[in-house]
Design brief:
The complex is a heterodimer. Chain A is an alpha+beta fold. In chain A, about 25% of the residues lie in helices and about 40% in strands. In chain A, helix 3 packs across helix 4. Chain B is globular and about 85 Å long. The longest helix of chain B has about 35 residues. Chain B starts with a helix and ends with a helix. Classes of the chains: A alpha+beta, B mainly alpha.
Chain lengths: ~350, ~525
């Protein structure tokens, strides 16, 4: 693989008593689209603002193309970094029209009018040069913000929760557009989000962040399919965790005995994805349907086992079930096994 | 802690040193007058004797009495007027809102001139009644005259605040009370009144501070509160420390009022939702026209009376020989000094307001609070301190327009701060950071992103300073260089000499200018 364009090494940041970053490290490769995924308050926005130059680390350093841009003693000002940020609220300049917003960061000497036209065509906003920001829809504002960032010809684009201010109905479409756009320009981008579905569907790389640290970096399939801890597994997708006992390559829990991929011994947490469980009338563990979330294309069915645990199963929309119906639950494939945490 | 950080909006870490230094200079400049005054007073060897002297105590008592009774009167007038114009089917209520705010456009010393020239010896009413054989009128001098003039021309401070709070109040709360079985009176008492409390308190604070520092009307109506006493001491005695001593109880009283205000402030937060339905107006029924008459009476006293009296003297003066060229220079001088004060105040505000809006913390908070010191300093104490200071330490500036401008700026900095700070707070800080991340340095970001967005607030703040400085009296009298006449000093001198026709035109000009200031205030509260 190519040399990483951005390296974050062991970043620490405290705000008074709050530990926002506790040794966060990760790398980003040229031309990649990385999602920084984590629950709110995990420090991901602080990390993003540090890469942009709006915060200084207490410890650790950030390197861009091999040069240190942030360290406790030295912080390159934001305007010298060639790192453009797209804000959650887009932060368009309210006193400037679309063309002037886009032209703001254009390098000196460029043929501004032509470049603005080109960029607006790229984000499919041609003809809206003279509009003021408040006259645009949310999706249009976001594309202006993106065009404005691209105009500065940055090495890296940072996007802070870029889709959270958009109407849910158009969010998915805009996401796809943004991904195609970034890919066609070939620019490196980091997108901060707390929405796992967004991260998995959008990015080539996902960095899972919790409690001020990056816990796992990998492709969406890696992060979803082989989470390195119970926390990551539960955050990245719907999961059921059952207490179990492991011995060698075998693990046993209320749903039966399974082969385990990672060999632990003793008390463990056994985790099944919601889609890894199924209903089986013959050999299933008996339980009762207690709740149904119906989505049309599929449904999430909560089943309370006789032993007391409640499991959530992602099932096809048909057949339908009823609350109170007695069913059996069975597992397909190997579960994830982690050392007992509670 | 987490809350404090969220509130602090995690800005670029370090407060820029240059900005900090500028803000510190502004704070020091504002604190110079009171500190110097106290220091000067402490040089007096009879400070305690003077403070406990019978005449001082009498003036202090009069100031307290006048402040309390005027404030109470203003509240009693404002609350019903605001309710009538805000919540009932009073005829022409939109127009009344503006008309009832306009008495604020009459500076109280112009009000004093109106009273003296209408009802005093040799005044309008005596002129009119003399043919009927009436030679003596009941005296207007003393407490009642001062109480009437200051109340009728300063109640709008409270009226505007309370009326604005009615406009902000969500009518669905009143509807909720009604649907819970409460009648209109109980709804007013238990829902509206508590919500109006912050507005009443804010307006009452302005009125009380105003009465304490009022100088023109009490002097003209010969009710010797502390301010005339300070002035007399200053003009008649060579011992300047003793005038400074008399300034102390004035500042003390203002600080005391501010302290009461901050101690009694309620803790509830009053929300008003953005989406509001039109108000359902309460039918007044047979009270409709009496209410109309009540509004009419207040408007007649607060607006009709001064305008009529001024126009009467103007008409009478037109037949006399003209003094228009003299007046032109007075108007020009007023505008020049006030305009310079507006520019200086805005420039002084910017670093302080920017620091407090973008880097909230205890240092920036301290500087911001200091810049509001003008509010707690009766104008005459600022003037007095600066007369002494200029004469002793910066003699090149003594008797120049600069010291006058400086005093105006100190006094009216709070007005500019309010407008400028709130416009800075409305600038989305992300737009500044966006500019930085697009390659613009701090100065270019300020010039191209922050400044254009704050322009309306800065110009409104400057306008407010300009308009209020135009009608400032005690600072102008004490600090104007010799031969530097302004509209305010013209009116003051003419009234002292009972030369009523001469004061008419400058009064009219001031009335018109102040009316602009009131309309500007109304627009800011979205009442017109």
């Amino acid at each position: 693989m190519t040399q990483p364009i951005l390296v974050c090494r062991n970043l620490v940041k405290r705000f008074g008593d709050v530990h926002a970053l506790r040794g966060a490290s990760f790398e980003v490769h040229e031309g990649s689209l990385t999602a920084l995924l984590g629950p709110s308050g995990c420090g991901k926005t602080t990390l993003l603002r540090m890469i942009a130059g709006f915060e200084t680390p207490d410890e650790g350093e950030i390197l861009l193309r091999g040069t240190t841009i942030s360290s406790p003693s030295h912080s390159l000002p934001p305007e010298k970094r060639r790192v453009a940020m797209v804000f959650q609220d887009f932060a368009l300049f309210p006193h400037l029209n679309v063309a002037a917003n886009v032209a703001f960061g254009l390098p000196r000497g460029a043929d501004k009018a032509a470049r603005v036209r080109e960029l607006l065509a790229l984000v499919r906003l041609d003809g809206l040069e003279d509009r003021m920001p408040h006259e645009l829809s949310g999706g249009q504002q976001q594309r202006v913000a993106l065009a404005r960032a691209l105009a500065a010809e940055p090495d890296l684009i940072l996007m802070d929760e870029p889709f959270s201010n958009l109407d849910p109905a158009i969010r998915e479409g805009v996401r796809g557009e943004v991904r195609q756009l970034l890919r066609s320009v070939g620019i490196t981008a980091i997108i901060v989000t707390h929405d796992q579905e967004e991260a998995l569907s959008l990015a080539g790389e996902v960095a899972v962040m919790m409690n001020g640290q990056i816990l796992q970096v990998g492709t969406p399939a890696e992060v979803y399919g082989t989470p390195i801890s119970r926390n990551v597994g539960e955050f990245v997708g719907a999961a059921n965790v059952l207490p179990g006992r492991a011995a060698g390559s075998q693990v046993e829990c209320v749903l039966g005995r399974f082969g385990a991929r990672n060999g632990f011994d003793g008390d463990v947490d056994v985790m099944f994805r919601a889609e890894a469980l199924a209903i089986s009338e013959e050999d299933g563990v008996p339980g009762e349907v207690v709740d149904i979330d119906y989505y049309g294309h599929d449904q999430m069915v909560a089943i309370k086992l006789q032993s007391g645990e409640t499991l959530r199963l992602r099932l096809l929309a048909r057949p339908g079930y009823e609350i109170g119906q007695r069913v059996g639950v069975t597992a397909r494939g190997e579960p994830f096994v982690f050392p007992r945490t509670s | 802690m987490a809350i404090a950080i969220a509130g602090a909006r995690r800005r670029i870490n370090n407060q820029p040193l240059g900005l900090l230094a500028l803000a510190a200079i502004v704070a020091a400049a504002v604190l110079l007058p009171p500190v110097y005054l106290v220091w000067r007073a402490s040089e007096s060897n009879a400070i305690w004797n003077q403070l406990t002297d019978e005449s001082t105590l009498r003036a202090l008592w009069r100031t307290v009495l006048l402040t309390a009774s005027v404030t109470a009167t203003c509240i009693a007038l404002s609350v019903p007027l605001a309710w009538l114009t805000g919540r009932t089917d009073l005829p022409l209520r939109g127009l009344w809102t503006i008309i009832l705010a306009l008495p604020l456009a009459v500076p109280t010393f112009v009000g004093g001139y109106v009273m003296v020239s209408a009802l005093g010896p040799g005044g309008l009413v005596q002129d009119l009644l003399q043919p009927l054989g009436v030679n003596r009128l009941p005296s207007i001098y003393g407490f009642w005259g001062a109480w009437f003039v200051i109340s009728i021309f300063s109640y709008p401070y409270i009226f505007i605040q309370v009326r604005a709070s009615f406009a902000r109040m969500d009518p669905s709360m009143e509807e909720a009370a009604r649907s819970l079985g409460k009648g209109p009176w109980e709804t007013f008492r238990r829902v509206n009144l508590p919500q109006m409390r912050p507005a009443i308190a804010a307006g009452a604070l302005l009125v009380a501070l105003y009465v304490v520092s009022e100088f023109g009307a009490v002097s003209m109506l010969r009710y010797d509160t502390l301010t005339p006493l300070v002035y007399i001491q200053y003009t008649t005695s060579f011992d300047r420390a003793s005038a400074a001593v008399l300034g102390l109880p004035l500042i003390g009283l203002a600080v005391f009022i501010l302290a009461i205000d901050s101690l009694t402030r309620g803790r509830a937060l009053y929300y008003s939702r953005a989406q509001r339905r039109p108000v359902r107006l309460l039918p007044l029924g047979r009270w409709r026209w009496p209410a109309f008459a009540f509004c009419g009476l207040i408007a007649a006293l607060g607006l009709g009376l001064p305008v009529t009296v001024v126009l009467y003297w103007l008409a009478k003066g037109l037949t006399a020989e003209g003094t228009t060229s003299f007046l032109l220079s007075a108007a020009f001088n007023s505008a020049r000094a006030s305009g310079m004060a507006a520019v200086v105040a805005a420039l002084a505000c910017l670093p302080v307001a920017y620091l407090s809006a973008r880097y909230p913390g205890w240092t920036s908070g301290l500087f911001e609070k200091a810049s509001y010191a003008g509010q707690a300093l009766p104008a005459i104490t600022i003037a007095l301190a600066l007369v002494f200071f200029a004469a002793n330490y910066v003699t090149p500036f003594y008797q120049t327009i600069w010291i006058l401008v400086f005093a105006y700026a100190v006094r009216f900095l709070p007005e500019a701060m309010g407008a400028i700070r709130s416009s800075l707070l409305q600038v989305n800080p992300n737009t500044e950071e966006a500019a930085r991340s697009l390659g613009a340095g701090p100065l270019r970001t300020f010039a191209r992103v922050t400044a254009p967005q704050t322009f309306p607030g800065v110009s409104a703040g400057m306008m407010l300073v300009f308009l209020t400085a135009m009608k400032e009296l005690p600072i102008t009298i004490l600090l104007s260089p010799i031969g530097f006449n302004t509209l305010a000093t013209e009116i003051w001198n003419a009234t002292s000499e009972a030369f009523f026709t001469k004061a008419a035109l400058p009064s009219l000009i001031l009335l018109l200018i102040s009316a602009c200031a009131v309309l500007l205030m109304l627009r800011r509260e979205r009442l017109s």
